[in-house]
């Protein structure tokens, strides 16, 4: 059993169907799985309980409840007072939520909602077994109007996507993992991203070795967005970064506080990685067709995505680009526009939405937000476990787009999917601070070795 985040390597995620298959096969040679699960829960409960009061184990009707009953027995054997039931004991030292796990298949009944409310109100820390009760394992969305908001979740046997995307991070608290001694014999449903190395800088390399980025955006009043993207591309290590601001005369500096940044246009750097759309407003629409046609590698963000959502011809042009050469970085609303659905639909199943968009536009999609999802046509999707609400601030997405452009410039042979996985994870890790991170400071954190 170990504390899972931050991840140290890429790990497999398994959805409910895959987890069930793994469990069924495992039971043939390890029939004591529930004993193992209960023991793991008891061990963690011992470490987490606060004070000498009873550990309250709220056990449901299925095997999740079964894990809870085993844990209760183990705790009692260790001399810990336990209370098994659906109503709260006096001053519990810990609540073990073993109401519902993988088997959740409908909105919790009123009786269950009453127990969830009681365990939430009793004041003790909550340890959820496998999943917070009421949270859907595949999507990270509550099945009904309430799910348990746990302080800790000990997930068992497999890692479930819903712990890491959607609302998963808000409901799961600190995530622990015990594989119960079983190695999954099933392909991953998705990857949980681990840290990726930075592009190497050879001792004899020169600026020409590290590629070029062209940032196109910054309509009147929004130049900051394009400059943040450009600074991020530069901080990432791109050899040269050019900015085509949509509101300035070409003679003005790209960024007076970053003299390293140059002015440039598509015709000046036709082989650059394009980072298009940051603060670009509606003006970007008139440039997009040429950019989509000519730039060999494209990161499309913000207003570029909105323009594409409104233009079927542009969508066709995007589809006809080489697979692996386009990277879209929508937040949920931009993704909803591109898919012609509402945001709730995107958030209800972020993995499915990202995959649908990737297929529809023949592009890699980094669907942003808590638990960003990277999807590409025909590839296994990835979920990003890094990041925090410190990133919920204007400009952090522009920094991501620029960083991705900078990474790609240095790895011309990389497909968009690999670039997106590496960049989204690095961006998330740099954004793990308490409080709020200003986007300019995020660039500096990303740049730090
Ligand atoms: N079988 C084993 O040996 C193992 C089982 N494990 C545990 O088993 C769990 C899965 O067990 P189950 O498949 O029994 O599923 P659950 O225990 O999650 O729930 C199944 C029961 O809850 C009911 N239910 C579903 N949604 C409900 C709702 N909204 N309101 C009221 N009742 C609802 C179902 O009809 C069913 O009776 C895992 O999450 C994990 O905790 C793991 O520990 C691995 C080992
Ligand atoms: N609560 C959160 N947890 C993790 N990451 C977050 C959270 N809120 C925002 N982010 C990240 O911050 C970035 C915000 O991007 P975006 O919405 O495009 O902002 P902007 O347009 O202001 O730059 C994305 O990378 C997103 O994944």
From TrEMBL:
SUPFAM superfamilies: Ribokinase-like (SSF53613), YjeF N-terminal domain-like (SSF64153)
The YjeF N-terminal domain, residue ranges: 19-188
Keyword Glycoprotein: no
Boundaries of every YjeF C-terminal domain copy: 190-449
Catalysed reactions, as listed in the record: (6S)-NADPHX + ADP = AMP + phosphate + NADPH + H(+); (6S)-NADHX + ADP = AMP + phosphate + NADH + H(+); (6R)-NADHX = (6S)-NADHX; (6R)-NADPHX = (6S)-NADPHX
EC number: 4.2.1.136, 5.1.99.6
Binding site for (6S)-NADPHX: 63-67, 101-107, 130, 225, 281, 331, 398
PROSITE patterns, per database record: YJEF_C_2, YJEF_C_3, YJEF_N
Binding sites annotated in the UniProt record for K(+): 64, 97, 133
Pfam families, per database record: Carb_kinase, YjeF_N
Binding-site residues, AMP: 368-372, 397
Names of the cofactor(s): K(+); Mg(2+)
Cofactor note (record): Binds 1 potassium ion per subunit.
Keywords annotated in UniProt: ATP-binding, Isomerase, Lyase, Metal-binding, Multifunctional enzyme, NAD, NADP, Nucleotide-binding, Potassium
UniProt-listed Gene3D superfamilies: 3.40.1190.20, YjeF N-terminal domain (3.40.50.10260)
Record-stated family: Belongs to the NnrE/AIBP family. In the C-terminal section; belongs to the NnrD/CARKD family.
Subunit relationships: Homotetramer.
Role, per record: Bifunctional enzyme that catalyzes the epimerization of the S- and R-forms of NAD(P)HX and the dehydration of the S-form of NAD(P)HX at the expense of ADP, which is converted to AMP. This allows the repair of both epimers of NAD(P)HX, a damaged form of NAD(P)H that is a result of enzymatic or heat-dependent hydration. Catalyzes the dehydration of the S-form of NAD(P)HX at the expense of ADP, which is converted to AMP. Together with NAD(P)HX epimerase, which catalyzes the epimerization of the S- and R-forms, the enzyme allows the repair of both epimers of NAD(P)HX, a damaged form of NAD(P)H that is a result of enzymatic or heat-dependent hydration.
UniProt name for this protein: Bifunctional NAD(P)H-hydrate repair enzyme
Organism: Pelomonas cellulosilytica
